[in-house]
Amino acid sequence: MEIVFYILITLLTFIVMEVVTWCTHKFVMHGFLWVLHADHHEPKYPHVFEKNDAFFVIFAIPSILLLYFGISPTINYLFFIGLGILFYGIAYFLVHDVLIHQRFKWFKNIKNKYLLALRKAHKIHHKNMGKEDGECFGMLLVPKKYFRKN
User: Distance between CA 35 and CA 29 in Å, rounded?
Assistant: First the structure.
């Protein structure tokens, strides 16, 4: 029964991370830490890394700490919260950096309706070059209007 509890904690953490990501993106990245996120909105950013990549580290720190403290003295629920954050980070990398921005050319010919809608919503987000008046701040939840064909 304990394993079911730990699986549920991991899944719930993953789901909550979408809300955390939306809030962080809207109020922190497009707010007081715009200085780190602004280069991500530049078209065809010329460097391998962006200042925006610092957010990977910012999100990794609590995950690493939770994983560490979640095995001391024995494995406990903190480990599985850290694992949920880690899994979300992996999903974020694959969806945002690989699929949407194609920083790595692994998935070029996507035909899936959900993934195409996800790309479209993110493209709308990047249409606005400034920190104000943005939309579509989440990563995995896509508004229905982006599933329609234009």
Answer: 8
